[in-house]
Structure formats: C-alpha cells, structure tokens
Amino acid sequence: MGSESPLKLPQIDFSKADLQPGTASWDCVRVQVMEALGKYGCFEAFYDIPLQLRKAIFDSLEQLFDLPLQTKMRNSSKKPYHGYVGQYPQVPLFESMGIDGANIMEKTKSLTEVLWPEGNPSFCNSVQPFAQRVAELDIMVRRMVLECLGLEKYFEEHEGSTNYLLRVMKYKGPQTSDAKLGLNAHTDKNIVTILYQNQVDGLEVLTKDGEWIGVKPSEGSFIVMVGDSFHAWTNGRVYSAFHRVMMTGNEARYSAGLFSIPKAGYTIRAPEELVDDQHPQLYKPFDHVAFLGYYYTPAGQQDQFALKTYCGVPE
Ligand SMILES: O=C(O)CCC(=O)C(=O)O
Ligand SMILES: [Fe+2]
C-alpha cells in the first residue's frame, strides 16, 4: 500500500505542565508510550517548544544548507554519519549534517565556528536550546519504558551510556507529483530518535503487518522512534520500525532528528529480568561502535537486518 493508507500513528500528549515521574498524568502517559512503542515502534508526541524557537530552528537549517558545498564538507567526522552527508546518486534529493553533542553549547559553538568563521550566534542560540529541550523528551520516554518494564533501577546507567547527535536533513522537492525516494527504508541503529519536520510531509513508517503509514505530524509535534539498540536492550519489548522518506512536489522538506546513541565501550545487553522461556534472548551482547563497523561495510549497507546478522541469537 502507498502513503494513502488511513492508518495513523498513536498520538501522545506530553504538553502537561506537571509531567513528572510519580504523578498520575505521568503514569497515564507511560502506559500509552509502552503500548505505542511495543506495537508501532513510534508515536507522535505533542510537546511544547516555544514558537520562536521552532521558527528559529528552521531558519537555521535553511542557512546551513544554503552554505556552499565546500563549506558544508568542512564538517567531517571520524564517526560514520556524524559529519556532512549528501550528493549520493541513489538519493539525490537528500543531504544531511550531523551536530555531535548539539545539546552542549561548547560543541555546537565549535561546529558553528567551522561553518561560519565570522560567527553565527543565531545558529548556536537555536540549535543548542532546541537539542536540549528535545533531549528532555528523550529522557522522559526512556524512563517511562524502563519503569513499565519494572527496571527503573537501570535508568541512571542507561541514561549515562548515551550521547546525543542532532542530525538535520534537507530533501529537495522532486518537482513532480510522482513520489520519489528521499531516504531508503531502514531501521535506526541507535536508542531513540526524535524527529521534527517543517510543513512538508514525506516520512513513512512500516507497520508489523507490512503497511506503510504516511506520517503527517501536526504543526509543532514530534515523532518519537525506537532504534535497534533499544529494541535489543529491551529484548524486543519495544519495536524498531522500518521507515523511509518519499517526496513529491516542489517544496523542500527540512527535518531535524535528535539521536540518543550508545557511547563507545558500552555493551548493550538485555537485563536478565527480560530474558525467560517466553522471551528467549534475541541478541548477544554487543558494542554499538563495533556493530556500526559492520553496518557501514558494503555488505552491511545492503543488509536490512544488520543487527540480526551481526549478533542475533539463532532461533
Ligand atoms: O527526515 C526524516 O523524517 C527521517 C530521517 C531518518 O529516518 C534518519 O535520519 O534516520
Ligand atoms: Fe531513520
């Protein structure tokens, strides 16, 4: 089925002022989160970000992608997919820039200086607060999942084991009403991804039943999505969904994804509480950086089930 499918992602309201652990509204949201992430691997979150910041972030993205290619390419990184990525013949509409540690002002500032040696305070002053605010949502979601699994004792370890990468994307409009591939179908490899987009839709999510849902977030809402590492850590209790971007029309789509990513040296291992006869262990413990070593080989890039190939436990 195409993106005309009437299916919709679950919508969850995080905009209540008192959404704190231990409150009745927290417990109510947490049940919805667990249900959505178990079933779809993602949901739409209503979450307040000041209107001014929302506008500023898209102004910053436009400025960034309008820079000359040579300038954008100055953001190179040893870590795969953390620097500038684009100009791929298979996905000609797509380009993306990684902002490693975007929630930390020093880090965002140093990338800003690479791109704009003359300075660009409005860029840091939109990107850093945006990433910080979205990181708070990431933490809430992860805490809720751990609580639902009765594993809150692991929360601090879990929280301390990740870094944030803000990856911002531009997809050119294909100038046609035929849907063109913006980004290949994939599952994210990290813990949790939180996506925010402008008014141009294009994201599609594959359900467990094999139907593509066209995602049409309301203005100002976010898409929260589980990555393979969280799926593995929970021994499958949360699902990591395939998703892709399909583009039509003339307008450019801008999106920003905050990725929580396991730190190098942290072994992802499902806690013993989550492994039993009904729930046999799905993956052997693995190091995320080593796994990416496989994923970014030519074979890994062709492999839709890279994590399973890399460390899946045979049934
Ligand atoms: O642009 C989007 O909405 C999706 C991007 C995405 O899936 C990714 O960067 O992993
Ligand atoms: Fe993705």
Automatic annotation (TrEMBL):
<dbReference type="Pfam" id="PF14226">
    <property type="entry name" value="DIOX_N"/>
</dbReference>
<protein>
    <recommendedName>
        <fullName>Fe2OG dioxygenase domain-containing protein</fullName>
    </recommendedName>
</protein>
<dbReference type="InterPro" id="IPR005123">
    <property type="entry name" value="Oxoglu/Fe-dep_dioxygenase_dom"/>
</dbReference>
<feature type="domain" description="Fe2OG dioxygenase">
    <location>
        <begin position="161"/>
        <end position="262"/>
    </location>
</feature>
<comment type="function">
    <text>Probable 2-oxoglutarate-dependent dioxygenase that may be involved in glucosinolates biosynthesis. May play a role in the production of aliphatic glucosinolates.</text>
</comment>
<dbReference type="InterPro" id="IPR044861">
    <property type="entry name" value="IPNS-like_FE2OG_OXY"/>
</dbReference>
<dbReference type="InterPro" id="IPR026992">
    <property type="entry name" value="DIOX_N"/>
</dbReference>
<dbReference type="InterPro" id="IPR050231">
    <property type="entry name" value="Iron_ascorbate_oxido_reductase"/>
</dbReference>
<keyword id="KW-0479">Metal-binding</keyword>
<dbReference type="GO" id="GO:0016491">
    <property type="term" value="F:oxidoreductase activity"/>
</dbReference>
<dbReference type="GO" id="GO:0046872">
    <property type="term" value="F:metal ion binding"/>
</dbReference>
<comment type="similarity">
    <text>Belongs to the iron/ascorbate-dependent oxidoreductase family.</text>
</comment>
<dbReference type="InterPro" id="IPR027443">
    <property type="entry name" value="IPNS-like_sf"/>
</dbReference>
<keyword id="KW-0408">Iron</keyword>
<keyword id="KW-0560">Oxidoreductase</keyword>
<dbReference type="Pfam" id="PF03171">
    <property type="entry name" value="2OG-FeII_Oxy"/>
</dbReference>
